[in-house]
Amino acid sequence: MRRGVLLVVVAALVAGCGPSGPPTTETTSAGFATLAEKVGFLEDYVRFRRNYEQLDFAIEYHNNSGGMVPGPSEWDVRIVAVVPPPELDAWTSALSPAASPDTALLAGVPTPIDHSGVTQWFRNGGVLVGVDEGNAVVVYRNLAM
Fold first, then answer.
1. For the chain, what are the domain ranges?
2. CA distance 8 to 145
């Protein structure tokens, strides 16, 4: 009887070790036909919900929660977007002003959006946001690797 109980407990523990969170991916917005498809995919990998007029991204996400020894997930989420102008503050309200970074961080984001006017930068830990208020362009990066 004890052996049977032990087997049930071990089976339950192993079953509970499955991955949590979104699946591992290396995906860009180039593979999506519509804005709605892009937003739907992106929202699996970010906690915030925003409105977009245009959206492009590159997401590298490694879900390390499965396996015998789960670990923290790693990610590099990069976004270039045109947003409704009244919503620009939502992107930066919890961040502090930051120095202008090397914009090579946008390499790999397939976008026709002109982000050359992004001159205001904000940061909080691994989150970096750049804003072009005149054109309502937002550049976002969340890096945890």
1. 20-144
2. 36
